[in-house]
Fold this sequence. Notes:
Layout: E1 9-13, E2 20-29, E3 32-41, H1 46-56, E4 70-76, H2 78-90, H3 92-96, H4 102-116, H5 121-125, H6 133-136, H7 145-158, H8 160-171, E5 175-186, E6 211-219, E7 224-231, H9 240-250, E8 255-259, H10 267-273, E9 279-284, H11 287-295, E10 310-314, E11 317-326, H12 328-353, H13 361-375, E12 381-387, E13 397-403, H14 405-413, E14 417-423, H15 432-440, H16 443-455, H17 467-495, H18 507-515, E15 518-524, E16 527-532, H19 537-545
Helix pairs in contact: 2-4, 2-17, 2-18, 4-7, 4-17, 7-17, 12-13
Amino acid sequence: MITRDGNLHLEIQNSRKSPVGLLRTSLYDNGKTKHTQHGRITGCTLEQLKILQHAFRENVVPADSPEAFQIVQSTEYGASFAVLDIIKQTGLDKIIYSKSEPWVNSVLAMIVGRVVYAGSKLSLVHQQDNSSLWDLCGITGRVDVDKHCYLPLDRLLERQKLIQKKLASKHLKGNQLVLYDITSSYLEGEYNNSELVAFGYNRDGKKGHEQIVIGLICNGEGCPVGVEVFAGNTKDSTTVIDKVNEVKEIYGIERVVFVGDRGMVTAHNLEVLKDVEGLATITALTRAEINALLERNVIQPDLFDDFNICEATDSEDPQRRYCLCRNPLKAEEDNATRQALLDKTKEQLDQIAEYKQATTPEILGARVGKILEKYKTGKYINWSVQTDSTATKSRDHKLVWSFNAQAIQKDKQLAGCYIITAYNVKQEDMAAAEVVKTYKQLIQVEQAFRNLKTVQLEVRPIYHKKDERIRAHVFLCMLAYYVQWHMQKALKPLMDKGKGKNRKWTFANIIETLKQLTRNKIKVNGAEFYKTNQPTLEQGEILKLLESKI
């Protein structure tokens, strides 16, 4: 800027590594421009120097003016950006579909929305005015729930098998552990035409509600690779054989170590699966199966140790290994619980034995049966109803009972004891301690279900009424958990900080912290532009761990 009257102005030189502001007056003298320099301004950004330049030009608007700096609108930006960035880092967007098409963008928005907001598809649509989510996913204009949610869900379901095959090829390689478990999710309302929604064993304790059953496949680290929805009355064990065949054939995994709990890998399933080539199984024995081994003298109670894992084999089934373990804390808890139940049983049975009113053997037996059923102590009690011919009429029948000391002592010996069994797993490939550790990794699937159902992703309530939409919704939630799993893995150093009341960071807290990063629509002197606010130190630490740059 050159002034004829020599007013002070600021000239910006941006050709250096850092911009510099030169304080000058400039005059025309005999057709030539003469500059007089009065000082330099350094250490400022280009934007800051431009603001100062406006001030020297007297273009700064007073703070109380309608034309002053205004934040017209703020929308959530940080959480949606970070989750979408993780999707791209993991390549999930390309796994869903290799091309960037409108329906794919909508699916990505729903996955991000499930992690950041949960809730229904309609509620996610209404977040458009509060969040940058839809814009970040490349969706402009007003969002419509049918066009941008339901129809893309249908497309996603069509590609479920292919997507899961790609996830399996990425996360299940070579001699792989495959963790499998199922859970149920209850629904509300009427589903008269549904083949999926049915009454069954409800793992949520919601009696009177119909449900669906969800089976989840994870790799050894707990990363989800596949999900399936079964009818609500499906038994745990009936899903296992199909899942094993799916992993072996559809996913093309040659050597599989299939890990499932005692309710799924039953004796019948083991018999069917034992001839599957390249398949090994790890599961836990039921108490009845442990008692059967004790009766056959395959194992003895004194083999269970508080500190060491004892391994045993059965000559009738040499390919099966039994890893005997004992948890002393669980043993102490079990013994205390049993004793408390026995004390309550004794108190109630003594009252019946001292009952002085006339009664019948049937009534006495019914009362005893009710108590034993209530406290689950029937195997510890010997009892009978006897007739006393010498007594008065009101005391013709009386209860005689005693504790079964042998049964109590046997269960005390087995308190806290459990057996992990491995079939077709050689000792040189996996030692006994590793077999036990591998079975305990099933807790990661339980953690996945906890996140899917209640903590962050909230697969329920399910608002869809069509079976195919229910399947698509559950699959979408699994993909959202896939993203969350990768985020939690990256954020582990932060989430592991502090214990008890000093523990600050949970995944939910991290999402809420990132939500505070907003994209702001700013208006200055009639001009409008967008600006994202500067991350705080905590937000910066989270973004650094996620390798996301805003």
